Amino acid sequence: MTTHLGNPCPHASVFARVTTKYGTLTVGTTSLADGRYRLVVPFSARVNDNLDWSVEAYTPEFERLELSGHRIIVARAPVSVDQPVDFPIR
To answer: Which residues in 21-76 belong to E strands, given as ranges?
Structure first.
């Protein structure tokens, strides 16, 4: 869920980027009126490959937030990011 000033952020632009040795793929969506969103990024990787990911979100006023991380693929299971994208309270 994207939040803005401590409240759900409707209509935020959300982009997920996944990079493996086979390439980079970016997908995007817009959050719903309650701030929820879901993105699925299909990627190619093998066990023990590195995977870098980032999630960027922009409010309708163009305030930006980014989360990022790194994983080593250990099984043929989906990699999920369950953290909400929370914009800082000002």
So the answer is: 23-30, 50-58, 64-72
